[in-house]
Design brief:
This protein is of the alpha+beta class. It is built from 2 helices and 4 strands; from the N terminus they run αββββα. Strand 2 (36-41) and strand 3 (46-52) form a beta hairpin.
């Protein structure tokens, strides 16, 4: 499976599901048992954890802001 570049992933950030609303309430929890790409952001850093499961996120889960199913992201990048 081809690794996606940050540029390819970034083009589709608007398709990611926000995890929290503007009040900090969880509205779209990270799904379990499927491969996802997650956008993570902290005060000092931001980036993507790509092609991972929720169990593989580790500490990135604490700074996760949005996610997309890996299959959906790959379809978007192919089109």
């Amino acid at each position: 499976m081809k690794e996606l570049s940050i540029q390819e992933i970034s083009k589709h950030i608007s398709k990611f599901n926000d995890i929290y609303d503007e009040n900090g309430n969880e509205i779209n929890p990270i799904p379990q048992g499927v491969r996802i790409t997650v956008y993570c952001k902290s005060d000092k850093d931001e980036g993507f954890a790509d092609n991972v499961t929720s169990d593989e996120l580790g500490l990135n889960a604490l700074i996760a802001r949005s996610w997309i199913l890996e299959d959906e992201l790959r379809k978007l990048c192919e089109s």
